Amino acid sequence: MTPSIEEILGHPFASPGLLREALTHRSAATHRRGRPAAGSNERLEFVGDRVLGLLMAAWLVERYPAEQEGELGRRLAHLVSQPVLAGVAEAIGLAAALAVSPGEARAGVKKRATVLADALEAVLGALFLDGGLMPAKAFVRRAWLGAIEAQTTPPKDPKTCLQEWALARGFDLPTYTVVSRSGPPHAPAFTISVDAGGQSGTGSAGSKRAAEQIAAEELLRLLAK
Protein backbone atom coordinates (compact mmCIF):
# COMPACT_ATOMS: atom_id res chain seq x y z
CA MET A 1 0.00 0.00 0.00
CA THR A 2 1.35 3.38 -1.02
CA PRO A 3 2.11 5.57 2.01
CA SER A 4 0.31 8.88 2.33
CA ILE A 5 2.14 12.19 2.20
CA GLU A 6 1.61 12.56 5.95
CA GLU A 7 3.29 9.18 6.49
CA ILE A 8 6.19 10.18 4.24
CA LEU A 9 6.58 13.46 6.10
CA GLY A 10 6.35 11.64 9.43
CA HIS A 11 3.82 14.11 10.81
CA PRO A 12 0.01 13.90 11.30
CA PHE A 13 -1.33 17.35 10.48
CA ALA A 14 -3.43 19.13 13.10
CA SER A 15 -4.54 21.46 10.28
CA PRO A 16 -4.97 19.27 7.18
CA GLY A 17 -5.94 22.35 5.19
CA LEU A 18 -2.31 23.46 5.26
CA LEU A 19 -1.21 20.27 3.53
CA ARG A 20 -4.01 20.54 0.95
CA GLU A 21 -2.92 24.09 0.19
CA ALA A 22 0.71 22.99 -0.16
CA LEU A 23 -0.35 20.38 -2.71
CA THR A 24 -2.50 22.76 -4.78
CA HIS A 25 -0.85 24.10 -7.93
CA ARG A 26 -1.92 27.58 -8.97
CA SER A 27 -3.75 26.10 -11.99
CA ALA A 28 -6.12 24.25 -9.61
CA ALA A 29 -6.69 27.21 -7.28
CA THR A 30 -9.35 29.92 -7.40
CA HIS A 31 -8.44 32.90 -9.58
CA ARG A 32 -9.73 36.40 -9.05
CA ARG A 33 -9.46 39.16 -11.60
CA GLY A 34 -6.12 40.90 -11.34
CA ARG A 35 -5.11 39.00 -8.21
CA PRO A 36 -2.99 35.88 -7.55
CA ALA A 37 -4.67 32.50 -7.25
CA ALA A 38 -6.25 32.03 -3.83
CA GLY A 39 -5.53 28.72 -2.12
CA SER A 40 -2.50 27.82 -4.23
CA ASN A 41 0.79 26.71 -2.71
CA GLU A 42 2.73 29.88 -3.55
CA ARG A 43 2.54 31.42 -0.07
CA LEU A 44 3.64 28.18 1.59
CA GLU A 45 6.45 27.85 -0.95
CA PHE A 46 7.70 31.25 0.27
CA VAL A 47 7.81 29.92 3.84
CA GLY A 48 9.30 26.56 2.91
CA ASP A 49 12.16 28.14 0.99
CA ARG A 50 13.29 29.96 4.15
CA VAL A 51 12.78 26.94 6.37
CA LEU A 52 14.84 24.73 4.07
CA GLY A 53 17.64 27.28 3.93
CA LEU A 54 17.80 27.53 7.71
CA LEU A 55 17.69 23.79 8.36
CA MET A 56 20.20 22.99 5.64
CA ALA A 57 22.62 25.69 6.81
CA ALA A 58 22.49 24.37 10.38
CA TRP A 59 23.02 20.79 9.16
CA LEU A 60 26.03 21.75 7.05
CA VAL A 61 27.68 23.69 9.88
CA GLU A 62 27.20 20.65 12.13
CA ARG A 63 28.39 18.14 9.53
CA TYR A 64 31.43 20.07 8.28
CA PRO A 65 32.92 21.88 11.30
CA ALA A 66 36.23 22.61 9.53
CA GLU A 67 34.74 24.27 6.44
CA GLN A 68 34.40 28.01 5.99
CA GLU A 69 31.59 30.13 4.58
CA GLY A 70 32.57 29.81 0.93
CA GLU A 71 32.68 26.03 0.98
CA LEU A 72 29.49 25.76 3.03
CA GLY A 73 27.78 28.23 0.72
CA ARG A 74 28.53 26.15 -2.36
CA ARG A 75 27.21 23.04 -0.64
CA LEU A 76 24.07 24.89 0.40
CA ALA A 77 23.43 26.34 -3.06
CA HIS A 78 23.54 22.87 -4.56
CA LEU A 79 21.37 21.18 -1.95
CA VAL A 80 18.58 23.76 -2.25
CA SER A 81 18.81 23.99 -6.05
CA GLN A 82 15.86 23.18 -8.26
CA PRO A 83 17.29 19.92 -9.67
CA VAL A 84 17.96 18.53 -6.18
CA LEU A 85 14.53 19.58 -4.92
CA ALA A 86 12.84 18.05 -7.95
CA GLY A 87 14.77 14.83 -7.37
CA VAL A 88 13.67 14.67 -3.74
CA ALA A 89 10.07 15.38 -4.77
CA GLU A 90 10.19 12.52 -7.28
CA ALA A 91 11.73 10.18 -4.73
CA ILE A 92 8.91 10.70 -2.24
CA GLY A 93 6.17 10.49 -4.90
CA LEU A 94 4.99 14.07 -4.49
CA ALA A 95 3.68 14.40 -8.05
CA ALA A 96 0.93 11.86 -7.44
CA ALA A 97 -0.49 13.98 -4.60
CA LEU A 98 -0.24 17.32 -6.40
CA ALA A 99 -3.55 18.90 -7.50
CA VAL A 100 -3.40 20.60 -10.90
CA SER A 101 -6.03 21.60 -13.45
CA PRO A 102 -7.07 18.93 -16.00
CA GLY A 103 -5.46 20.92 -18.81
CA GLU A 104 -2.16 21.23 -17.00
CA ALA A 105 -2.28 17.56 -16.07
CA ARG A 106 -2.61 16.63 -19.75
CA ALA A 107 0.32 18.94 -20.53
CA GLY A 108 2.47 17.02 -18.07
CA VAL A 109 2.98 19.87 -15.62
CA LYS A 110 3.47 17.42 -12.74
CA LYS A 111 6.73 16.29 -14.35
CA ARG A 112 8.24 19.77 -14.54
CA ALA A 113 11.19 20.34 -12.22
CA THR A 114 10.01 23.85 -11.35
CA VAL A 115 6.58 22.61 -10.28
CA LEU A 116 7.96 19.71 -8.24
CA ALA A 117 10.57 21.88 -6.53
CA ASP A 118 8.00 24.56 -5.66
CA ALA A 119 5.57 21.97 -4.31
CA LEU A 120 8.26 20.40 -2.13
CA GLU A 121 9.10 23.79 -0.62
CA ALA A 122 5.39 24.41 -0.03
CA VAL A 123 4.99 21.06 1.74
CA LEU A 124 7.97 21.89 3.92
CA GLY A 125 6.41 25.27 4.71
CA ALA A 126 3.15 23.58 5.70
CA LEU A 127 5.03 21.06 7.84
CA PHE A 128 6.81 23.88 9.69
CA LEU A 129 3.66 25.94 10.24
CA ASP A 130 1.73 22.92 11.51
CA GLY A 131 4.39 21.24 13.63
CA GLY A 132 7.33 23.60 14.04
CA LEU A 133 11.01 23.10 13.29
CA MET A 134 11.50 19.61 14.74
CA PRO A 135 9.32 17.62 12.32
CA ALA A 136 10.59 19.79 9.46
CA LYS A 137 14.18 19.06 10.51
CA ALA A 138 13.52 15.32 10.79
CA PHE A 139 12.00 15.22 7.30
CA VAL A 140 14.79 17.24 5.68
CA ARG A 141 17.49 15.03 7.21
CA ARG A 142 15.77 11.91 5.91
CA ALA A 143 14.87 13.20 2.46
CA TRP A 144 18.16 14.98 1.68
CA LEU A 145 20.51 12.39 3.22
CA GLY A 146 21.45 10.85 -0.12
CA ALA A 147 22.12 14.25 -1.69
CA ILE A 148 24.29 15.45 1.17
CA GLU A 149 26.26 12.19 1.33
CA ALA A 150 26.96 12.44 -2.40
CA GLN A 151 28.87 15.68 -1.81
CA THR A 152 32.38 14.36 -1.24
CA THR A 153 33.79 17.86 -1.78
CA PRO A 154 32.16 21.31 -1.89
CA PRO A 155 30.74 21.60 -5.42
CA LYS A 156 31.48 24.47 -7.76
CA ASP A 157 28.41 26.32 -8.96
CA PRO A 158 27.37 25.52 -12.57
CA LYS A 159 28.16 29.03 -13.86
CA THR A 160 31.75 28.75 -12.62
CA CYS A 161 32.13 25.26 -14.09
CA LEU A 162 30.78 26.41 -17.46
CA GLN A 163 33.10 29.41 -17.51
CA GLU A 164 36.11 27.21 -16.74
CA TRP A 165 35.04 24.77 -19.47
CA ALA A 166 34.85 27.56 -22.06
CA LEU A 167 38.17 29.16 -21.08
CA ALA A 168 39.99 25.83 -21.10
CA ARG A 169 38.98 25.32 -24.73
CA GLY A 170 39.65 28.86 -25.94
CA PHE A 171 35.98 29.78 -26.37
CA ASP A 172 34.42 33.12 -25.51
CA LEU A 173 32.87 33.43 -22.06
CA PRO A 174 29.30 32.10 -21.78
CA THR A 175 26.60 34.64 -22.60
CA TYR A 176 23.28 34.74 -20.73
CA THR A 177 20.07 36.12 -22.23
CA VAL A 178 16.68 36.70 -20.60
CA VAL A 179 14.20 34.83 -22.80
CA SER A 180 11.08 35.75 -20.84
CA ARG A 181 9.81 37.16 -17.56
CA SER A 182 6.33 36.32 -16.31
CA GLY A 183 4.28 36.12 -13.13
CA PRO A 184 3.24 38.74 -10.58
CA PRO A 185 5.81 41.00 -8.86
CA HIS A 186 5.75 38.91 -5.68
CA ALA A 187 6.38 35.65 -7.56
CA PRO A 188 8.23 36.33 -10.82
CA ALA A 189 9.41 33.60 -13.17
CA PHE A 190 12.46 34.05 -15.38
CA THR A 191 13.57 31.93 -18.33
CA ILE A 192 17.19 32.45 -19.33
CA SER A 193 19.32 30.93 -22.05
CA VAL A 194 23.10 30.52 -22.04
CA ASP A 195 25.37 30.03 -25.04
CA ALA A 196 28.89 28.60 -24.96
CA GLY A 197 30.96 26.52 -27.36
CA GLY A 198 28.29 26.69 -30.05
CA GLN A 199 25.60 25.11 -27.89
CA SER A 200 22.93 26.47 -25.57
CA GLY A 201 20.91 25.61 -22.49
CA THR A 202 17.88 27.13 -20.80
CA GLY A 203 16.67 27.44 -17.23
CA SER A 204 13.61 28.79 -15.44
CA ALA A 205 13.36 29.96 -11.83
CA GLY A 206 12.03 32.69 -9.59
CA SER A 207 15.19 34.82 -9.87
CA LYS A 208 17.61 35.62 -12.68
CA ARG A 209 20.55 34.19 -10.75
CA ALA A 210 18.81 30.88 -10.10
CA ALA A 211 17.64 30.64 -13.72
CA GLU A 212 21.20 31.28 -14.94
CA GLN A 213 22.53 28.50 -12.70
CA ILE A 214 19.92 26.06 -14.01
CA ALA A 215 20.66 27.05 -17.62
CA ALA A 216 24.39 26.55 -17.04
CA GLU A 217 23.75 23.15 -15.44
CA GLU A 218 21.63 22.04 -18.40
CA LEU A 219 24.30 23.14 -20.87
CA LEU A 220 27.00 21.32 -18.92
CA ARG A 221 24.91 18.13 -19.15
CA LEU A 222 24.61 18.59 -22.92
CA LEU A 223 28.32 19.24 -23.30
CA ALA A 224 29.15 16.15 -21.25
CA LYS A 225 27.41 14.01 -23.85
Description:
The structure is a single chain. This protein has 225 residues and is α+β, with helices and mostly antiparallel strands. The protein has two domains: 5-149, Ribonuclease III domain (Ribonuclease iii, N-terminal Endonuclease Domain, Chain A, Orthogonal Bundle), CATH 1.10.1520.10; 158-224, Double Stranded RNA Binding Domain. Helices cover 56% and strands 13% of the residues. It is built from twelve helices and five strands. The chain has helices at 5-9, 16-22, 42-63, 69-79, 82-91, 94-97, 102-106, 113-131, 133-143, 145-149, 158-168, 208-224, and strands at residues 30-32, 35-38, 175-182, 189-196, 199-205. The chain has a three-stranded antiparallel sheet with strand order 3-4-5, covered by helices on one side. Strands 1-2 form a two-stranded antiparallel ribbon. Strand 4 and strand 5 (199-205) form a beta hairpin. The termini are far apart. The model has no long low-confidence stretch (mean pLDDT 89).
